[in-house]
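tmp note - Peroxiredoxin PRX3
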Amino acid sequence: MATFCLRATSIFSSLALRAVRTPSAAPLAKLNAASSLRAAAAPLSFCMETRAFASEAPERLANLSLVARPAPDFTADAAMPGGEIAKLTLSELCGNGSGVVLLFYPLDFTFVCPSEILAFNAAVADFEKLGFKVVGVSVDSVFTHQAWMRVPLAEGGIGKLDFPLVSDLDKTISSRYHSLLNNSVALRTLVIIDGAKNVRHMTVNDLPLGRNVEEALRVCEMIREVEKNGGKQVCPANWRRGEKMMEASFHGVKDYLGGLREKIEKQI
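out:
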């Protein structure tokens, strides 16, 4: 009798567990239907949230980087190296595989700006060897650009340049490149665009902080080297032209880091 009771208890316990673990078909159908509704509503909810994000806080969108995106095209007046005024179109400058280095700066006749412009001007030939054209952009008028170029260095001007200065008088270009500060002047934004008209590099400096021309050249060199090998090799930290690149694979990482370790140990 005791054995029978134990077996009966075991059977009933097993049945109870199965009943708990296996819901009936009707609740399952309701559960599946609810899940389907939630899945169908998810994209709609996401769209609504995205619209709210865009409409309620447009200033957030202005901080999105342009890197890996097509460069916003523009046509504008520019003071040319010869002193004349001409229309420049970005997409035309990027033709035949040529890249462009866009050098945004706050204003003509100011302080850090001439030091940057003259530093980039001294390196124009180096940029051109790499297939990149330098173009300056500020919110000044094209006539102010011309006037500044007529003033000798000893008197606070920039003299004759080897690259054009674009006039962004209506601030459209600076806005499209997320460079405009409080709807007044452009920050020190550096944008490097490849021959396919895509933004490959973008940095923004505050007004009192000048940029490094050598770093801009290094970025241009990296772009060209990666293009040569079709992206099979990449440029590690502090890479310089002529140095070993890294194969874009797990084996490549191990090989590069192994060599880096040996180099560090030798220095120690």
